[in-house]
Write the C-alpha cells for this entry.
Amino acid sequence: MRIRSISARVVFLFSLLVSASVPADSYKRADWLPRWSDFDRDCQDTRHELLIRYSLAPVTFTRSDKCKVATGMWMDPYTGNFYTKASDLDVEHIVPLKWAHDHGGAHWDRALKRQFAEDPDNLWLVDDGRNQSKGDRGPDGWMPPYAPVAALYVQRFMAIAQKYGLRPKLAEASRFQTLAAGS
C-alpha cells in the first residue's frame, strides 16, 4: 500500500498506535493485583513502602514490627490537601488497571500485569474518596480537581500508557493531547 501525502502518512501511522474497539477478555482485578507484594521481604508491602517513601514527616507504625504505617504527612496531588492518617489514603493507579486491560493489557501474562499494577511510576497516594470517584476512567472521563496537577496527571498517564504499549482509542488520544497541553 502506498500513501501519497505526508499528512495521510502521519494519520495512518498514528492510527496503527491507537486501538480499535477490540473486545477484551473479561477483567478480573485478582489477575493484576491479588495483594500488594513485599519485594524486599522486610514485612512492608508496596503500599506501606510508598507511604514511607512519600511522607513529608517521619512516619509512625501500627505495631512494633514496623510493617504497617499508621501516620505521617502526605499531600494528595489530586486535591492539594494534606493527610496525616495512612488509612485516609489509597494507592492510586494513574492508569487504572481496568483501563490498561481494555487498551491492550488483557492479553498480557500475569507477570506483566503484576509488574504494571505495582510499578511505582504508575502509583500515587491519594484521598480514598477521590480514587473511588475516578474509578477506571482515563483523563477523557475524569480529571483531578486540583488544577496545578491536571496537565502533569495527563502527561504521566500518557507516559505510562506509552511505556507499556497501551493504545488509547483515537478520540481518547486526541483528548489526552489537548489536556496535556493544559487546554
